[in-house]
Specification:
Blueprint (H helix, E strand, L loop, with lengths): L4 H11 L6 E6 L4 H14 L5 E5 L7 E5 L7 E4 L7 H12 L7 H8 L5 E7 L6 H14 L3 E7 L4 H6 L7 E4 L2 E5 L4 H7 L6 H5 L4 E6 L3 H11 L5 E5 L11 E2 L8 E2 H14 L3 E4 L3 E6 L3 E5 L4 E9 L3 E3 L15 E2 L2 H4 L7 E5 L3 H11 L4 E5 L9 H8 L4 E4 L2 E7 L6 E6 L5 E5 L2 E4 L3 E3 L29 E3 L11 H21 L1
Parallel strand pairs: 1-2, 4-6, 5-6, 9-10, 9-16, 10-13, 16-27, 18-25, 19-20, 19-25, 20-21
Antiparallel strand pairs: 1-3, 3-4, 5-7, 7-8, 11-12, 14-15, 15-16, 17-26, 22-23, 23-24
The structure holds flavin-adenine dinucleotide (FAD).
The site of flavin-adenine dinucleotide (FAD) has 34 residues, from helix 9, strand 10 and helix 14.
Length: 509
Amino acid sequence: MILDDQLKQNLMEYLKLIEGKVMLTLSVGEDDASKEMRELMDELVLLSDDLIVKEAILSRTPSFTLSKPEAEARIAFAGVPLGHEFSSFVLALLQTSGRPPKVDEAIIQRIKAIKEPLVFETYVSLSCHNCPEVVQALNTMSVINPLIKNTMIDGAVFGSEVESKEIMGVPAIYLNGEFFGGGRLTLEEILTKLGQVESAEAFEAKDPFDVLVVGGGAAGASAAIYAARKGIKTGVVSERFGGQVLDTVGIENFIGTLYTEGPKIAADLESHVKHYGIDVMNQQRVKAIKKSAFIEVELENGATLKSKAVVLATGARWRELGVPGEKELRNKGVAYCPHCDGPLFKGKHVAVIGGGNSGIEAAIDLAGIVSHVTVLEYLPELKADAVLQNRLFSLPNVTVIKNVQTKEITGNGKVEGITYIRRDDQMEVHLPLQGVFVQIGLVPNTDFLSDLITRNRIGEIEVDAKGATSMPGVFAAGDCTTAPFKQIIIAMGSGATAALSAFDYLIRN
Ligand SMILES: Cc1cc2nc3c(=O)[nH]c(=O)nc-3n(C[C@H](O)[C@H](O)[C@H](O)COP(=O)(O)OP(=O)(O)OC[C@H]3O[C@@H](n4cnc5c(N)ncnc54)[C@H](O)[C@@H]3O)c2cc1C
């Protein structure tokens, strides 16, 4: 049985939402994945009269397409969409049946405006939590615009394609046969990459805001909600709404909730923010903040937004090693997300750079997949919690090398090794391996700020207890500030403080 009782129960609830017949066209052989696919379909048809299954020979086996009967199929799954991709499959079933995708009208218009055929192929691993968002976005585009097609391809089943394309990070998206993009991409990000952008004029025409929040992570969403609840005109401009929580799998310290997942928090933040009618300008990067009669927020698209007060909540990003080979071999063996990309290194030797909590958690995770993990730590001792270190040292396929500095990641088109320097005797050592996971912390996203906003040595914005910065009317919150401890609820709390302080500032000025 492929579907356990719980999954079957959930599926039956979803299948009640189906709006019409869906044809599932299967291409199956005698391999194990084909058998699994056939079994899944046999179980599915018993759950709904609207599902029709037929067999055919498609370009990949095992694979299947979804379509309305007699219509051309535009969505395909190569491999069995279980694991994290099961939700992509269910959504594709409902949308193919005629259930309208839950997407803003402005986005629907941007999708419909695409006038040339786009054939996407999206390589995934079933344990990748970032992959479903991409698969679902491309499937939604395929449902809305008949010129668009998407196939999800499980890299574990189609290993030779992964090898020949030298894919070492998922999701990996190909458009009309050429590499299009990798890593988590939202529907809006895909549209922007395709050149379907909102015009700068639409932004210029906006009236000044009372509070404009820069950044749509935990801190920014919280600030926006607190400001909007005061009844003032509030906007959020963010490069990637959701921020870091989008890259987080299990969260066990979101107080009041025993366990949740980052993408769920991000989706809840978005619907909470939108509930208050806040103007969310996603996919927009701020390049400068200036002071005139208003505070002027300049966007990279050329437009300038005006606001009486601003909350900066631009968070932080993965810190890069900054050594030769890192940029060149990114997604060719250099990776930052062990949960996403770990399965692609099955049976290989990888290094984890960084012996803090995130590095050691990554090493423990990877040790269950790869043949060997070598942890490289710059300091003479690991900084991770003792409980994590104990777990790490109990594993047979892990080596820890301390007091070393990474010098270079080597390889021709893909990672082939790493060179490090022993800090005690300056000896250079080369280690042949196939993957490098960089886990050396985060840097604040504050490079775009001028000296009018005081920052500390590592670029964090200096704030007082009310979240005020050195520029009057500009407040800051979350991971981009000097506030100690970078955590979700701390970011949310500081976002609330900054918004209430901004409101206080508006009353007084
Ligand atoms: C892998 C991982 C696991 C974690 N696990 C946990 C956990 O279990 N529990 C916990 O409490 N915390 C955890 N954290 C930390 C937590 O996610 C962060 O502290 C928190 O999300 C920070 O929120 P933020 O809003 O300050 O910043 P971010 O989430 O970084 O958001 C910043 C926002 O600003 C936007 N932005 C940046 N620059 C610009 C610009 N120039 N113009 C416009 N927009 C911009 C970004 O696109 C984003 O929307 C984890 C972090 C990581 C990376």
